[in-house]
Amino acid sequence: MIPCKPTSRKLTLFAFFIFIFSGIQLSAQDGKALFQQHCAVCHNIFKPMTGPELMNLEERGPWSDHNKLLEWVHNPAAFMAKDPYTTGLHTQYGIIMTPFPDLTLKDVDAIVSYINGEVAAKNSPKGPTTGVAGEEKPSTSSNAVIFGVISLILAIIALILMQVNSNLKKLSDDKEGILRPEPVPFYRNKIYIAFVSIILFIVGGYYLTKGAIGLGRSEGYQPIQPIYYSHKVHAGINQINCLYCHGGAWESKQASIPSVNVCMNCHKAINTYEKGPKLYDEDGKEIDGTAEIQKLYKYAGFDPKNSSSWDPSKAQPISWIKIHNLPDYVFFSHEQHVRVGKVQCQTCHGEITAMNEVKQFAELSMGWCVNCHRQTKIDFNYDSTKGNKFYSIYEKFHDDIKAGKMDSITVKDIGGLECQKCHY
Amino acid sequence: MKKSLIILTVIITVIAVASCNRVRRTPGRTYMPDMTYSRAYESYASTDALKKEGVFYNARPVTGTMARGDEMPFPISEDKPGDTVNYFASRQVKNPLNVASIDMTEAERLYLVNCGICHGTKLDGNGPLYKGGDGPYPAKPATLVGDAKYESMPEGQMFYSATYGKNMMGSYASQLTTKERWMVIAYIKSKQVKVAVTDTTAKK
């Protein structure tokens, strides 16, 4: 059992270290929990918010002494009366800190060590790299160009070879003394002409028809907006509800574009883009999200260094470019579709949560509208608690469903194809 | 002559193919633009032409008027920066709605759309934007349920914050009407009561 002894000693040593490290881990965890519970509402570690940033706080004011820090945290108003540093902070931020009399000296130590740990993690080069590198860089589609050039070159070669062939034939004929009539050049050859004109007719007709149908339709329209606003980041990754910004879709004809103050609800605090994936525009150029937020601040007249003096009434509207445009002679109401019809936004607008730059997903043609009205079933069931009581007026349909003559009611059955539903 | 013709064709074809970019940056043409694009002022259309004609228009309701069916406006005005007098005065304001008759499913929907993103669907101050410190929002949103400070906060003071904003939170007066804001606050209060009750029963 001799060789066993050192192993067991090692094991106890190992267990001892694990114990120590888990202890450290635990206090850091505590610091994080305490920080989030008490401080994070007003303080960020790295930037000033409602209160000053907490990075390197031990180097400022009297805070190297944690007892003083505790005294301040227990009763800020009383501490401020005898401390010029905190009085200065009060004039700068215009607010006195909320007292936290429950915190102990140990809690304060844990919070400060958590803050120092976060600062060290950010400063170390091995720190967590922000953003997922090289994610979904759009491939440049130069394939079509290459194919076009190759087929063009092949066609030219074929033409030259044909010319060479006829020349050689003529030479050999001359040598053998056979007299043939001068060959007709290909551009006067009737078969060639007929062939080319038929192809022209088909190709031209295809593009003419396609162009004529496409007049007034803008499927795939993807204008460059004044700010690179990514719906993927906002509605996709950060799960902001569509109605948060486009609340009008629930209660009016228009889905409504949010005014700048709605953007600033979050962007008053979020002034850098660092935690999301890298952004690219449609040409594959990388977008600096932080610079785009700065553009918003320009419209809002907001200075992140002096956020408390922001006046929302001075903001300028952002001139977003309208993508989805129905002709003036078509009536469309978002409320009818979203609230009453319970149609999902994505049904007509596509996978908005995956779009960086929004493009028109549907063709918005009349055939497209009518087709949906033909297919969409209506939830005809209602009682006192749920469902739409309006549908009770369609007594015949309810009777038919009961009698088994119809299995479902579509929008078409309640007048969804009447001209004057949308054109009046 | 022939050579130059071939070169020209090649160049034109290459340009034509290359310009067939899959990104469409223009809306295209229409048959009758005056029927497609409204002659009348549509929502969000520029009203600069009105200004040139000397017509005053700022898209705001006339001062002193209110929307039909909405509640009376909040009687307390916003504090000046650095002042908290009105914030504390708002404690006295009571919810003008009859709480028992509020449609709580609608109030919950309003909460989830407008507030849940920061304050969390469980009202725990941990919505998708904060995500326990991993989200993009740098400040911890208020813990509406489970924090004594907010559990004991009078509804009038909550309404003040929702109307004018407080600390990092912005004003929601443009997104929610007076009535809707009171509905949301009634919803939050109902959730707080429920949790408080279950907590005391658990201790017993």
Key features of this structure:
heterodimer; A: 424 residues; mainly alpha; Cytochrome Bc1 Complex, Chain D, domain 2; 4 domains; two-stranded antiparallel sheet; 17 helices; 2 strands; flat; disordered N terminus; B: 204 residues; 9 helices; 43% helix; 0% strand; elongated; disordered C terminus
Distance linking N and C termini of chain B:
102 Å
Mean pLDDT of chain A: 82
- Helix residue percentage of chain B: 40-55%
Span from first to last CA of chain A?
Answer: 98 Å
Average residue-wise pLDDT of chain B: 83
Per DSSP E runs of 2 or more residues, the count of β-strands of chain B stands at: 0
Low-confidence stretches of chain A: 1-7, 18-26, 127-140
Name the overall outline of chain A.
flat
Uncertain spans of chain B, ≥5 residues at pLDDT below 50?
200-204
Task: Give the SSE string of chain A.
Answer: HHHHHHHHHHHEEHHHHHH
Cα-based radius of gyration of chain B, to the nearest Å: 27 Å
Q: Structural class, from secondary structure content of chain B?
A: mainly alpha
Strand content of chain B: under 5%
**Would you give the CATH topology of the domain at 85-203 in chain B?**
Cytochrome Bc1 Complex, Chain D, domain 2
Total DSSP helices of chain A? 17
**What is the strand tally of chain A?**
2
What does this structure look like?
The complex is a heterodimer of chains A (424) and B (204). With 424 residues, chain A is mostly helical. Chain A has four domains: 4-123, Cytochrome Bc1 Complex, Chain D, domain 2; 169-215; 225-364, no CATH class; 366-424, no CATH class. Helix content of chain A is 49%, strand content 1%. Chain A has 17 helices and two strands. Chain A has a two-stranded antiparallel ribbon with strand order 1-2. In chain A, a hairpin with a 5-residue loop joins strand 1 and strand 2. The radius of gyration of chain A is 36 Å and the shape is flat. The model of chain B is unreliable at 200-204 (pLDDT under 50). The radius of gyration of chain B is 27 Å and the shape is elongated. Chain B is built from nine helices and no strands. Helix content of chain B is 43%, strand content 0%. Chain B has helices at residues 2-19, 33-36, 48-52, 85-89, 104-114, 116-119, 148-151, 155-164, 178-203.
